[in-house]
Write a structure and sequence with these properties.
Low-confidence stretches: 1-9
Helix content: 25-40%
Number of helices: 5
Structural class: alpha+beta
InterPro entries: CoAse, NUDIX_hydrolase-like_dom_sf, NUDIX_hydrolase_dom
Cofactor: Mg(2+); Mn(2+)
Organism: Bradyrhizobium jicamae
Protein name: CoA pyrophosphatase
Shape: globular
Order of helices and strands: HHEEEEHEEEEHEEH
Distance between the termini: 28 Å
Pfam families: NUDIX
Largest sheet: 8 strands, mixed
């Protein structure tokens, strides 16, 4: 099922304004729900909220961190990856650099930076973290805390094919244009829940990645 969103206009703010808004609206306070199963991340969708309540009762919380790398080009882009097909979860899907938070990580931000380096070779000297986006829960028990970051051009990537098979950039303007935000419906134990998809050329961006991008749009463009 594919339902059109309300036409609320194209994303027209400049790169400078995007990062200014992100710095003003985001911070590095770690939400308690990242580790506490009794605090359910709310999505605004009753089906998704009920699903997350059920998952929290049945599965242990799996804290994770991802990096939203916004490359500061004349026309800004977002760096995404395609996960390796043999991985045990989300195999072959489009994702942000990231993964589970290790005990040795100083913070979720450090976990996201570490994973970005391990997966695609994106070095920390090119990355300026801006702040955490809202906590995002998934049907697999993951609690994902995204770090929005400004990335300086000039980096060279080294793909770790054990984890990802490709890395590519998508224009920020495309991802922040609500006309590209498709809504689909999926059933979870008799409950209808909704998820976003943002197809771009041959890339099918959906699920948690598209959901997090939608949250970014709502926080930076609608707030």
């Amino acid at each position: 099922m594919n339902e059109p969103l309300l036409k609320v206009g194209r994303a027209t703010i400049s790169s400078t304004e995007f990062f200014a808004r992100a710095r003003a609206r985001l911070d590095f306070e770690v939400p308690l729900g990242l580790f506490d199963p009794h605090i359910i991340p709310r999505t605004g969708d009753s089906g998704n909220d009920r699903m997350l309540e059920i998952v929290a009762q049945e599965q242990p919380v799996r804290p994770a961190a991802v990096l939203i790398p916004v490359v500061d080009r004349p026309e800004p882009t977002v760096l995404l990856t395609q996960r390796s097909p043999h991985l045990s979860s989300h195999a072959g899907q489009i994702s942000f650099p990231g993964g589970k938070i290790d005990a040795t990580d100083a913070s979720p931000r450090d976990a996201a930076l570490r994973e970005a380096c391990e997966e695609v070779g994106l070095k920390r000297e090119f990355i300026e973290p801006v702040g955490y986006l809202d906590l995002y829960g998934t049907a697999f028990g993951f609690r994902i805390l995204p770090t929005v970051a400004k990335v300086k051009p000039g980096f060279t990537l080294e793909i770790n094919e054990a984890e990802v098979v490709d890395a590519f950039e998508v224009p920020l303007a495309f991802l922040m244009n609500p006309e590209n935000h498709q809504i689909h419906t999926k059933e979870f134990r008799g409950i209808d829940r909704h998820y976003y998809a943002m197809p771009y050329a041959e890339r099918y961006i959906w699920g948690a990645t598209a959901g997090i991008l939608r949250v970014l749009y709502e926080r930076i463009y609608l707030s």
